TrEMBL record:
Residues 384-411 form a coiled coil. This is DUF3375 domain-containing protein. It comes from Paraburkholderia xenovorans (strain LB400). InterPro entries: DUF3375. Keywords: Coiled coil. It comes from the Bacteria.
Amino acid sequence: MSTQDTFALYEDLRARKEEPAWRLLATQQSPAICTCLHVLFLSERTLPSSAFHERLHRQLEIVRRAGADLPKLAADYSSDWIAEGWLRRDFPHGATEEMFELTAPAVDATRYLMRLSRPRATATESRLASVVQLLQTLAEETDNNPETRLAGLLADRDALNAQIQAVRSGKVTQLPPERAIERAREVLTQSNELLEDFVRVQESLAAINLQLRRELVENDGARADTLERIFDGIDVIKQTEAGRAFDAFWRMLVDPVASTRFEAALTQVITRSFLGSMDATERRSLTKLKSRMVERAADVHTVQATFASGLQSFVRSREFREQRRLVALLRSATVAAMAAAEDIRPTQKVDAFLFRTSAAIRSVSQWMLHDPTAHVVDATMTEIESSDARLEDIEELVQRSEIDMRSLKRNLVAALGLADGPISIAHVLERFPAEQGLGSVVGYIHLATRHAEPTERRERVRWEGGDGIWRSADAPLFYFYKECIDELRE
């Protein structure tokens, strides 16, 4: 590296010290702040304002007990972190309250610290296989020699035919569980990095939107020139690495063949037995992988699609003209103030009056005190004749109204013991009929919300009612894993 390159690198890094990610890592309370941010948004991308402040209050109490010096209230820290560029606050259309989410710099900083805290293996087989596969694909797709290309395709065909013959003869090769877990974790790592790229693209588009509106209001030039410059900026964002990754994923998402293959592969993976050896957070992330990616990509695509129409509506709106008029008035007032500053001292009285708003003040004696005795509930009790119902009748009524959760838990434990992998509610009902009809189905769903892993799909469940008629319904699809057997036995 030349001296000039070293100097340029130093200047670039020195300028980046003022960026939000660097400031977050350099602050004195970085461990406590990053811990709170990571825990708050570990399983959810956005949080409503009420839930965010409540959970942040609890996390602050925990890190304070650990020795962190964070004396402010949760609301104060949320305002500070928004100003620092670590949190983003938005009010989406249709929402009932503000929503909080991490910014791209905060995601980068927390992800970097998590990699330091939990380093992965320096050279896993899946990463090496990805490098080899990419290198082979690069060599094949950049080869313009028909003979070598044909030889490579024939070799691939022979290898594929050999695999087909092996499967037909019953020789099915399966990955060992430890290697399957390694590849699943590599999928999660790369998908998280891809989601971070989507965040950067969305924030870049939002920054351009704000820049355009500012220039449209403050710039005296033609509107066409300003629009052309900003749309050039959008094209630049599309050519970045994050922009290309988003465009490639969006093309795959709208391609029915590629999208179907992706969903089919994910559906097969989440039913494999090796997932039981992964922790609950990893299984949940893998189960919701497509929905997370689709949700984030849809947000970016919505911003991208509505960008031009929103700008055109803003330029034609009355709000645009009012803001331009306000900017012109502020500029003229500033010019007049600068000119008057030469002749009028700051302490000199002028013939001008400023009417300010005020608040109404009332005496405490004007308040009416609440009288608790004015609304006393009648506490008298009415005597009721004793019932002649038998214990057997009462037990039957309880059986009708209450669900036998103990029997359902025993059924789940038995079904998990017989199964090789995860099971669903429909699988349990096939082995153990619903003795309480719909009540048993409701009971299984209740247990699934506490002990099973949810998915984005639904399944068909069947049961026989007390009248002997078979019924069916669509229910949420949950997967019970063997590791929840101890919880069900408690």
